[in-house]
Write a structure and sequence with these properties.
With 266 residues, the chain is α+β, with helices and mostly antiparallel strands. Helices cover 35% and strands 32% of the residues. It has a four-stranded mixed β-sheet with strand order 1-3-2-4. The longest helix has 29 residues. The chain is globular, with a radius of gyration of 21 Å. Belongs to the UPF0145 family. InterPro entries: UPF0145_dom_sf, UPF0145_YbjQ-like. It holds the Pfam family YbjQ_1.
């Protein structure tokens, strides 16, 4: 494998781009309804694109590091993994002349006890218009949903992710989680899931704001918790979605808008 400094497209991705240029083959991960919806919105699929990164990911320990600081470091590492995978996907889409990527899926696979792979997959599309976007847009929405979104006067801007990790300590937990406690609320867990979900939504909102979008569509949320001994619990919450920008303020966008396609809005 050629030397690579971690910036730009990985050599394997560059090889995919070269094969695309030489073969002219157009591939797509879109379903039939998704492909038709993309066509209605004025997009033509030009190829599958992918971004990935492998990170050492774990609970960082060290002198003077508090559990909540450990949680913050862990959340930052998760954000970096998703961000890197999405950035590499977008770079590959740019390299094949795409204007956007539809139907993006993101996943994390544990390779061993410490290594995890972040992967982003999607279908790069090109707009059949004279206008070109300032940058490649990305969305988890499938083609049919993008078509409906644009008919309502909105355009996808970027995949947005909010991630938060917290820890909570409560000495009552050792009594509330025993078999003799009965069916009772576990206060530490309630506080944790409430706080970590709220912060993940806040992080998601901040991510959307950085794109300059007008709103967002949440596509999925996740929550994972685990105990830290008898009196503490940790948790990670994630919010995934698409930042969207408005280009028409009426009840529905005029049909011509699908031809003009205001890609300069994103």
């Amino acid at each position: 494998m050629p030397d690579w400094d971690g910036r730009g497209l990985p050599p394997v991705a560059r090889a995919r781009v070269d094969r695309f240029a030489s073969s002219g083959l157009r591939t797509s991960l879109l379903s039939v309804p998704g492909a038709i919806g993309a066509e209605v919105a004025g997009f033509t699929p030009v190829g599958e694109v992918m971004g990935c990164v492998v990170e050492r990911l774990g609970w960082t320990s060290g002198f003077g590091i508090t559990p909540n600081q450990q949680a913050a470091i862990y959340a930052d590492a998760l954000r970096q993994g998703y961000r890197t995978a999405l950035d590499r996907l977008r770079l590959e889409a740019e390299a094949i002349g795409a204007d956007g990527v539809l139907g993006i899926t993101t996943s994390v696979t544990r390779l061993d006890e410490t290594m995890q792979e972040f992967v982003a997959l999607g279908t790069a599309v090109r707009a059949e218009t004279r206008q070109r976007p300032r940058r490649v847009f990305t969305t988890e929405l499938p083609g049919q949903d993008v078509g409906k979104l644009m008919q309502a006067g909105w355009v996808p801007a970027a995949v947005a992710i909010g991630i938060s990790a917290h820890t909570t300590f409560d000495y009552n937990m050792q009594y509330q989680t025993t078999m003799w406690a009965g069916n009772v609320e576990v206060d530490a867990h309630t506080r944790l899931v409430t706080e970590v979900r709220a912060d993940a939504r806040s992080q998601f909102r901040k991510t959307v704001q950085t794109t300059g979008a007008d709103g967002a569509i949440v596509s999925r949320m996740s929550l994972d918790t685990w105990q830290l001994g008898e009196v503490a619990v940790a948790g990670v919450s994630s919010v995934f979605g698409t930042a969207i920008a408005r280009f028409h303020s009426g009840k529905s966008a005029p049909t011509s808008a699908l031809t003009i396609l205001p890609l300069n809005r994103v």
